[in-house]
Amino acid sequence: MIRGKRILLGICGSIAAYKAPHFVRLLKKEGAEVQCILTPDAHLFVTPTALATVSQRPCLTEFTKSEDGTWNNHVALAEWADVFIIAPTSANTLAKMATGRCDNLLIATYLSAKCPVHFAPAMDLDMYRHPSTLSNISTLQSFGNILLEPGTGFLASGLEGKGRMMEPEEMVNSLKIHFELAQQLNGQHWLVTAGPTYENIDPVRFIGNYSSGKMGFAIAEALAQSGAKVTLVAGPTELETHHPNIQTIKITTALQMLDACLSVFPKVNGVIKAAAVADYRPETIAPEKVKKSSDTLTLQLTKNPDILATLGKMKTNQKIVGFALETENALEYAQQKRINKHADAIVLNSLKEEGAGFQTDTNRVHWVTESGCESWPLLPKEEVAKLIVQKIVSL
Ligand code: PMT
Asked: Does ligand 1 have an atom closer than 6 angstroms to the CB of 357?
């Protein structure tokens, strides 16, 4: 997927820059053309000579060439690239990208870029979790830039935590997937559900579940990055999405989720239902706070509509992908759900598997279709989402 692609590699002043020549070598081995641009301080961490040697192109830092004063044309550089990847992205460059402060060649090229931009933050854990850094990352995501999530582990400061630049091998994989997915869903419209539903008991209490929305939001992002327009119907969650291709409808209850889904379903190419929907709701909602009186309290529950099954029955050309969260006989129940709900595929996850299911940043899932079950390793939810998108392309 990378052969022949023109990759602009921006390198900032961060210790992770020492990995840049290795990253360039990996890209060159895949057959890419690589042009390096450094921020003024990046040479303190990696030499331009090393980068020029492995990339087989002069390494650029200044607006003009020192030999003859001619212009390093940032507009032409940006137009040349199929993709611009900024790795490592320092906290300083993140802030400049988010605010448009343009005082070096790398940022001028970034502001001129019409190609997809990927950025791989690398910094100490406290810098990474500072609200201003997190807010700058969100801003870049709202521009449609793609975050290459940093890893957790030993940092150059001697501390341990989140802030390690994504490893070069993983970045190459991510670019491969990007080129494979990019534009594959162009012109398509997908419906995604995410998060829990809350079913009110009285004005202060509800029946809910532990879904954080991370899985569903990651799927919405992956679809949007593949060129699809996405309607994301989200239950109560703190998460937000900024991708310009994603329109979010916020709901609270299963009935509201059903209404929101029905309103867009006839227009979409497919649906992915990652939400954890309450199967039952209180038959009546007490208008005032229920007072503590007797030792026991019985709530009469009534069944919620099965949204996935409802959409499955209505489908014309739409592809239907459901989730199944099981604790026992997982594969058997998943296959039953696929058949009963008229789904093309079920993404099965089990609460029995470590790192899978509710709230975690990772998931371990099994892709269940008529032809059988494919198991994937434990992966970040973003990577699981990309694999799901690859699968729906082939459905
Ligand atoms: O949000 P996270 O913290 O990241 O966690 C992710 C997750 C665990 C919630 C997600 O991976 C997941 O498994 N989602 C589905 C959870 C669930 O409700 O599973 P289920 O087996 O009960 O439901 C099967 C399918 O029917 C699901 O696609 C569900 O959305 C759908 N359903 C269920 C009940 C109902 N009334 N209407 C529905 O549409």
From this structure: yes
